[in-house]
């Protein structure tokens, strides 16, 4: 198993909470990590029909069979358990008894927040980060290969290529899970919708345009995006709320959470295709934003991520709210520094004034340097 950065954090949280809930996309390593942390505890998968039926038919008896705690995998499959878990952990009083995992935010988070408020800590575990892969010598040293591979653990612990693994992954998990939630009858339309979303990663989301291109109405498009977001396939980056300029873009930007999946959906079958691909810049930006998001989540931090763009097209790709101020980040796929890399920051910094903190450019080159007070960092230093 590739060591996960979040493992010490989970151990710390178990010392203070009776339950830790690990959420994230299918096949991101949640179960492997939970079983490693709780190696001496029983494991129960609610995906197993027999175990699920036992948990639903006799929840008290089911929890009595794991009185000292357990890993309860894919807990959203047995929502009846939540209320019984609440009374069970309250009566017992011990910390560190259960690790719950789930790969779907719909239902799971609302159930946990309603029934287990104050009793469960939360960890979002995304796919492997570049930092985690680098620590074990598995990270690609070439940017295009890093984008193409993404971070799903199966691609690093099995002899599989993305072209072999992603078709099975999408069929087995993405289509099955999401069709189950949405009751999608026209699979071909939904597949086209996911592909159209992939073509818009790193771009401002225009729901009406997306719906028209797919042949569905805007209400359906919004519902499908919400479910893709709840299933940890993509996320929406909101515009920053500070009123530095009244003529600001109000629509969010859409990003996929894993560029390996994104590249497969875009028909990129080998990393060499990325060199001349028209969406390489957007894919690179998606990778950087996703990596920074992973690094925050792995430390138990909720990413306060935004972007800034005015109606004239002036933009800062990412703004991170920190205790020290607003950290603006420009993301450029090019390997050679040029003055255009700094133009968005130079427009934004005078407006932000003393709120600005550590302005940074992350680019596709290999050098770490500084330019007129702006930090310049290589993609490989993340």
Radius of gyration: 22 Å
Q: How many domains comprise the coordinates? A: 3
Number of strands: 14
* Weakly predicted, low-confidence segments: none
Q: Which structural category do the helix and sheet elements fall into?
A: alpha/beta
What is the mean predicted local confidence, pLDDT? 92
Distance between the termini: 22 Å
Describe the structure.
It is a single chain. The protein has 382 residues and is an alpha/beta fold. The protein folds into 3 domains: 7-124, Rossmann fold, CATH 3.40.50.300; 130-285, Arc Repressor Mutant, subunit A, CATH 1.10.10; 309-381, no CATH class. Helix content is 42%, strand content 18%. It contains 16 helices and 14 strands. It has helices at residues 7-14, 30-37, 49-57, 59-64, 81-92, 105-115, 130-135, 143-149, 154-157, 162-182, 187-198, 207-214, 218-230, 259-265, 280-297, 343-352; strands at residues 19-23, 43-45, 70-73, 98-102, 120-124, 203-204, 234-239, 253-256, 305-309, 315-322, 325-332, 360-363, 369-371, 374-378. The strands form 2 sheets. It has a 9-stranded mixed beta sheet, sandwiched between helices. β11, α16 and β12 form a beta-alpha-beta unit. α8 packs across α14 (259-265) and α12 packs across α13 (218-230). The model has no long low-confidence stretch (mean pLDDT 92).
């Amino acid at each position: 198993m590739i060591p996960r950065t979040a493992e010490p954090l989970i151990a710390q949280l178990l010392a203070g909470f009776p339950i830790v809930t690990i959420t994230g996309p299918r096949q991101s390593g949640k179960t492997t990590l939970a079983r490693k942390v709780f190696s001496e505890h029983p494991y129960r998968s609610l995906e197993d029909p027999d175990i699920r039926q036992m948990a639903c038919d006799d929840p008290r008896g089911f929890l009595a069979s794991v009185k000292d705690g357990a890993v309860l995998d894919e807990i959203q499959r047995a929502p009846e358990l939540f209320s019984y878990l609440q009374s069970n952990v309250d009566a017992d009083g011990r910390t560190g008894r259960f690790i719950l995992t789930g790969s779907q935010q719909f239902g799971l988070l609302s159930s946990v927040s309603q029934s287990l408020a104050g009793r469960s800590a939360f960890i979002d575990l995304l796919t492997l980060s570049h930092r985690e892969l680098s620590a074990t010598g598995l990270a690609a040293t070439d940017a295009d290969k890093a984008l193409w591979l993404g971070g799903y653990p199966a691609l690093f612990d099995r002899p599989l290529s993305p072209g072999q693994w992603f078709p099975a992954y999408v069929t087995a998990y993405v289509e099955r899970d999401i069709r189950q939630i949405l009751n999608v009858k026209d699979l071909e339309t939904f597949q086209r919708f996911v592909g159209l979303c992939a073509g818009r990663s790193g771009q401002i989301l225009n729901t009406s345009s997306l719906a028209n291109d797919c042949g569905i109405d805007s209400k359906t498009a919004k519902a499908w995006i919400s479910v893709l977001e709840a299933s940890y396939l993509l996320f929406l980056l909101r515009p920053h709320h500070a009123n530095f300029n009244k003529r600001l873009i109000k629509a969010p930007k859409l990003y996929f959470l894993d560029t390996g999946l994104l590249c497969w959906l875009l028909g990129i079958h080998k990393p060499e295709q990325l060199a001349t691909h028209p969406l390489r810049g957007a894919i690179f930006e998606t990778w950087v934003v996703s990596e920074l998001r992973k690094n925050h989540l792995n430390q138990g931090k909720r990413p306060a991520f935004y972007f800034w763009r005015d109606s004239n097209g002036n933009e800062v790709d990412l703004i991170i709210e920190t205790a020290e101020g607003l950290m603006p980040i420009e993301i450029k796929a090019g390997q050679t520094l040029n003055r255009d890399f700094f133009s968005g920051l130079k427009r934004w910094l005078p407006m932000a004034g003393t709120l600005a903190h550590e302005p940074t450019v992350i680019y596709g080159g290999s050098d770490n340097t500084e330019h007129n007070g702006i930090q310049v960092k290589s993609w490989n230093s993340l």
